[in-house]
Amino acid sequence: MLTLRTAGLRRKSTARVGLAIAGGGPIGGMYELGALRALDVAIEGLDLTRMHVYVGVSSGAFLAAGLANRMTPTEMLRVFITGDAEDAKFRPEIFLRPAFHEYLKRASGLPRILFHWWRDLLRNPGDFSVSEMLSRFGGLVPTGLFDNDAIERFLRDAFTRHGRTNDFRELRRKLFVVAVDLDNGETVRFGGPGWDDVPISRAVQASSALPGLYPPVEIRERQFVDGALRRTLHASVALDQDIDLLIGLNPLVPFDASRARAEGLPHPESLVTGGLPVVLSQTFRTLLQSRMQVGMAKYMHEYRHADQIVLEPNADDAEMFFTNVFSYSSRQRVCEHAYLATLADLRSRRAQLAPVLARHGLRLRDEILDDERSLVNDLDPHARRHSNTSTRLKRALDDVDALIATRQRRRVRAAAH
Fold this sequence. Notes:
Layout: E1 2-5, E2 17-21, H1 25-42, E3 43-44, E4 53-57, H2 59-68, H3 73-82, H4 100-107, H5 110-123, H6 130-137, H7 149-158, E5 174-181, E6 187-190, H8 200-207, E7 217-219, E8 222-226, H9 235-239, E9 245-249, H10 257-262, H11 275-302, E10 307-311, H12 318-322, H13 331-348, H14 350-358, E11 363-364, H15 366-369, H16 388-416
Parallel strand pairs: 2-4, 2-9, 4-5, 9-10
Antiparallel strand pairs: 1-10, 3-11, 5-6, 5-8, 7-8
């Protein structure tokens, strides 16, 4: 589903494009990767590695950090989907390692808690209650099931190869990774003033520390958790950078069973038949999307000069709703699904999109939209591998080409006026 909101206050576009990518677990990230690949091939003039600003939340922070580090969607597909990347080797199991250190840390507190509980029980036996017992022993429950230190090491290794960087200050484009301070609920923008010295890998680890699944991440003696706790997309972070066009990606939307039924699509009789997991998933998705919609509508008044394009799954998309968000085995299928769905959205809305994109020097490639395509089959199977030195040289040459192309476009626009 593509939502388009055009600027209420028109000004001459400087072609500053910002990208905001929400969270959604591993499968949400794979959906966004497929959508990014579709945007990459279908919109001429859009270079996803040269956006004016990137904002990433939770799993979206992985992709935003990769793009800001000049990793193309194709390169990230090779890392996460096909597995034939020349450097970063993705192994799903590293994201699902039990947090043994957290388990031991909590278990070590058992003797002390038992001692105080028995002491207080003997002194005041009438004060015993189940709720009081649960309160005392709640501190023994681990704050996360899985260890996210391996995630940080994976990213740190990936961002220190082939001319990339793990330092916000060394990036050529602005990158903000959003997390929430657990102790006060404050939103922190890693990459912003006062927080740009935190390694990118550490910031992404903090932003994706979903409570219950991953332990909070300690940075400067503060505990950080998933950035989606405060907002879904944090699009205002990008809009604050005076951009002309915002592109947003949100992979989690509530499922509309009645719509699926009306269109003859596969659907359950009622979501309640799926039990508590499905009910909680629908509730969580509804909260996330409604919160995002309220924010985006507000932004139309606060940032009247900026056009907004937001891409999400359709409300009747059973593929996205019923796929386990932690099912790594489904990542290629979901990525392919998102790729084709995004191309279909662009194709169906091309009449409305074309003039908006043209205002920012962009154009839809009709030859791509009207062609039968496949995500993986479109990748070059004979991609050349590069050393660190050749990668830096290639990037320098790409920068020269981009500079020449930008100046040519400016001349054309100047001549037209």
